Amino acid sequence: MFARSLRSNRDFSVFWAVQALSEVGNAFSLVALPLLVLHTTGSAAQMGLLTAVAGATALLTGLVGGTWADRFDRRLLLMLCDAARLVLYGAIPVCWALNPQIWLLYVVMALASVFETLFRITYVTAVPNLVDKEQIVAANGRLEATNAIAYIAGPALAGVVAGLFGPTAAVAINAGSFGISLVGLAFIRLRPTVRSSADEAENKAAWAQDLRSGFLVGAAFLWRTPVLRALTLLLTVTTFLSLGMTDVFIYHLRHGLGQDERTVGYVLALAGLGTCVAAAATAWLRRSWGFGTCWLGAMGLCSVSVLVLGGTGQVAVATVTICLYSFGMALAGICSMSLRQQVTPDHLLGRVTSAFWTIHGSLAPLGAALLTALVGRLGTRGPLTAVAVVFLAVVVAAAFTPIRQRRPELTAVPLPRTRPTPPPPRDTPPSAACGEGDVHHI
């Protein structure tokens, strides 16, 4: 029923198709930019620092990005982000051909990260405006499945392109992918955002005050919803370590195992099979096993995979472990994202999403810089063993929270406000207090 309904949804089909093509370009950048830094500097620390800079600007954007996604036309915001990234990434091959400068990458990545974060927040809020509530998990699974396929083809092609024409050629293809997405988005329509009477009143407040309060509104909803609160806190720990993992994978393959650019691309492409399988299977796995088993099992698999990767000296074993790691991260990520979309009222979804990503990503730039610096100095075994231990500790801690429940969405009702306001609070209508239904995810 889900597949037939989604196929008949023209706007979702167009959105799905253009985002799949755009993700192929993003997959090029996943390989090309670290290789460009590695070619220029030979430093794993520089790779991690570039990732950290992008992560820091993403955090700053997260403070206001959710408010923008809830206040402005979401389709136009998506188009604006694509146009900006087309220009920014397109500047790299042009400027690199004239006079290569490593500082240019930091400037471009810092600015591009702003629009990337705003796009991701708005992308999440757009899905419930494209499909019905009961189709959200299936729609997310379909989007992630095609994105995963893109990340299978993309890195392999990027490795070939980088080997033949240099990493900047792969970056140019990434820039072009944003143009494809921009054109496709012009042909879709989103359902209007559902707003409460209190939220409409907020629209009359001063704009500066709205920007300041937007993050706090989202953070308050996360804190009052027990399962979202637990996920936010635990993912703050895992994201601290996982943001720089792709850089570590590439460094391990290039320096630890002595492989060339094409092999790096092929390994990451094969590893994308894990994400693809997880995306295709998430809806079925969650129905069969429940949220808790899927999330806990996925993070446990990530722990084991990272542990094995740190101790292997064989490309085949590294490929399998990276694939399993990708599977675990995708399964946990799709389950948690779908939960948040389901439990959050539509008019709050942008602010809740940006608050969630900002909080759990707050330490990620530091983590990426620290992890890659340690890997560059000590090699991969010790740092990856430490990462595996932390992931395992997260699994144990999560087993004592609402995350362990089979269907936490059925009980994910925000707790009452503790502020001494007269009941019922005038600024919290029943729809905002209870969410938009009984089925929700992160």
Could you describe the 3D structure shown?
It is a single chain. The chain is an all-alpha fold. Helix content is 79%, strand content 0%. It has helices spanning 2-7, 10-41, 44-71, 74-98, 102-126, 136-165, 167-185, 197-202, 207-224, 226-242, 245-256, 261-289, 291-311, 315-343, 349-360, 364-378, 381-398, 430-434. Helix 3 (44-71) runs antiparallel to helix 15 (349-360), helix 9 crosses helix 15 and helix 13 packs antiparallel against helix 14. The two termini are 24 Å apart. Residues 204-209 and 419-442 have low confidence and may be disordered.
Describe, in short, the structure shown:
With 442 residues, this protein is mostly helical. It is 79% helix and 0% strand.
Spell out the helices and strands N to C: HHHHHHHHHHHHHHHHHH
The count of helical stretches stands at 18
Distance between the termini: 24 Å
Largest sheet, strands/sense/barrel: none
Identify low-pLDDT runs.
Answer: 204-209, 419-442
Oligomer: single chain
Question: Which structural class fits the helix and strand makeup?
Answer: mainly alpha
Instruction: Give the rounded overall mean pLDDT.
Output: 79
CA-based gyration radius: 21 Å
Dominant shape: globular
User: Quick one: how many beta strands?
Assistant: 0
Helix fraction, binned, reads over 70%
Strand residues, percent: under 5%
